[in-house]
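Hello again,

I reread your note about wanting to compare the complex against the isolated chains. To keep things tidy I'm splitting this into two emails, and this first one only covers the full assembly. Below are the input lines as submitted, including protein chains and any nucleic acid or small-molecule components. They are followed by the predicted structure of everything together. The single-chain runs will come separately.
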Amino acid sequence: MTASARYDEIADFYAAGWTDALGDPATEGLLRLLGPVAGQRVLEIACGHGRVTRELARRGAQVTGTDLSSAMLAKAEAAEADEPLGVRYLQADVTAAGMLDADPLVAGGFDVVVCNFGLTDIDDLDGAARNAARALRPGGLLAGSLLHPCFPGGEGVSGSWPADGTYRDEGWWRAPDRQSSLRRQVGASHRTLGTYLNTFRRHGLWLDEMAEPAPDPGWTAVAGEQAARCPVFLVIRCVKAEPGNPPSPGRSVPRAGERPADPGPARPRAQPAAPKAQPRMLGPSDRGAVVAVARRQPRHAAAHL
Ligand SMILES: C[S@@+](CC[C@H](N)C(=O)[O-])C[C@H]1O[C@@H](n2cnc3c(N)ncnc32)[C@H](O)[C@@H]1O
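Full-complex prediction:
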C-alpha cells in the first residue's frame, strides 16, 4: 500500500488526534532547533493536514507545505480557507525524481526544509533527502523530528522496530501494541540512526545539531520506567553544504537567513512577494480507496509511537 493510501484512510483520525496545539516534546524540540523563522522561506515535507505549517506561518515564515495524501491536504486547505496565513499547499511525493521541478521556488530557493514526524512515513529516505537538498540554498537547514530509531518500546508501546527483530533490521512494519494507535494503522519504516545521518550527509546535508527530548511525565507513567530510561524522540538539524566543501569541525555554519563569514558569490536575498494562498495540486491522487475511518482518538501526542 502506498503512503498516500495509508493517510487517506485515516485523515479524520489523525486530524482529531494531532491538532494545532503543538505540545509534544519532539515538535517543540524541532521548533526550538529551528529558532526564529520570520521572513524565511520554509518547505515542510510530509506536512499532513498542516498543523506545523500553520505554526511556522504564524511565526512569520513564508511556508509551502507538501504531502502525498489528498485527504490530509484537503484538511490543510480547509484550515487555510478558514484562517488565511498565506500558506501554499502542493500535493507531491517528496521522494519522486524531479519533484516540484515546475515550482519556481524549488531549485535552491528555500532557507529551511522541515519534516515533523514524517521521516518514518516516507518509504524512500534517499529520494526525500535528495529532494530536500535540492530545494535548499547552500547554508540552508533541514530539520526533522521522529520517534527515536533507538527506542526499544515500552509497556503497550511499540518500539522503532519489531519486538521479534533487532535494531539493525531495517524496513517497513506495522506496530502491534495497544498504545501505538497511529503506527498500528499506517505502519512505519525503521532505519538505524546511522542510515539517517549517512543518507543526509551523502546528499550534502551535514548534522549541525541534534536533540533527544524527554517524553512527558504522563507518557512515562503509561509506557513505564524502562522506556523512560531510553531515548524516545530524536530531533536533528542538518545544514546544506556546498558540494565538496563540507563544514569542518569547529567551524560555525551560517544559520538560514544569516550571512556566512565568507559570503562567496553574491546571492540576491530579496524575498519574493508573499504568495497568495492558492492551493495547487500536482496531479490527481489515484492511490487507494477511502475505507472506514478510524474514530478512536489517541489520548496523548506520544501516540505517534
Ligand atoms: C505522521 S504524518 C505527519 C504530518 C505532519 N507533519 C504533522 O506533524 O502532523 C506523516 C505524513 O507523511 C506523509 N507522507 C508519507 N510519505 C510521503 C511522501 N513520499 N511524500 C509526501 N508525503 C508523504 C503522509 O501522507 C502523512 O501526511
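For quick reference: Residues 249-254, 259-303 have pLDDT under 50 and may be disordered.

B.
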